[in-house]
Amino acid sequence: MRATDPPPSLGTVAREFGRIGCLGFGGPPAHVSMLRELVVARRRWLAEDDFEHGIAATNVLPGPASTQLAIYCAWRVRGIVGALVGGAAFILPGLVLIIALAAVFLGDPPAWVRGLGAGAGAVVAAVAVQAALALLPGSWRRLEGRGQRARWIAYLVAGGAATALLGPWLVAVLLACGAIELLWRRTPRGVHVHAWVVLAAAGASAGGLAALCWTAFKVGALSYGGGFVIIPLMQGDAVERYGWMTDGEFLNAVALGQATPGPVTQTIAVVGYAAHGLGGALLAAFVAFAPSFWFILLGADRFDRLRTQPDARAFLDGAGPAAIGAIGGSAIPLTLALSETWQLALLAAGALLLFALRRGTVTTLLTAGAAGAVIAAAGGPLPA
């Protein structure tokens, strides 16, 4: 946008970012492409290098990167009010849809609806593996030297193992890997560094509102890598620690998060609905998305320094590969959560669609969901 051009109206900001919120199927890659088409190619609100700068800066931050990029673009266009309006317009369409679907899937739905959820949920493990594999090459290319590569592998393995073995404490491992890499680079050569990070969630009583807020906060403010890294964080709390959902219900929630437009982070609303109804869904969504707005509103004008700050880069170089490992590792508990033989068959078919036939995530989820609905309608067994 040229300095002489008048800024767009807030109505225009709401309409344009709301359109992406309604049509943004496919997760962060689709969101980034649609945002670039809007603010760079069509409206020319931002220059190409300004948009790339926004991508780099928001990827340094924890939480849902594509949501933060949308808020950042709206902030560049209309300041603080524009960020609030544009960010809300981007988030709300998918959030409203996923809460409405949660009411159907978590209530007392007919058998075919349960089969639809069970079928789509069956292929989520394959989607998680695909997401992790897509992130590996770029992360590996940024490494310098044999020592950094060895630590990268260790962080990757630690993230995957933590997902499979530690459940709710995954966030501690992500923070620990970031802290180890930061201390390693700040310590003179030859001195060995050992870092341990211990987190305590004071006030998170067994399944109460404080526990829900803590889970949502971890999803929105402590999930380095965004996207699928939030799945093991949520599963550990929602299923294992607090018992808000069964394994099958959680798989349905993840499938809904993938099959609806908007960021995967909105899956936390389904967890909140299972825990405390509509009020819990709205509270969990507010807590999860609030950090994204605060990061942009308080720090957007400092993004240049954040992106090039050595300590920030060092921390992310440790937490990043651990997050990738966690994404891939989430396939283990997600697969173990499948209780019916036909779900395992759908998982194998979903992997074939994703990896051999190169079908998209949404297409794969919808195909598996349709197959599950047919099996249920024919009298096939359904997960408890």
UniProtKB/TrEMBL annotation:
The keyword Cell inner membrane does not apply. Keywords: Cell membrane, Membrane, Transmembrane, Transmembrane helix. Coiled coil: none annotated. It is found in: Cell membrane. It comes from the Bacteria. Belongs to the chromate ion transporter (CHR) (TC 2.A.51) family. This is Chromate efflux transporter. The gene is chrA.
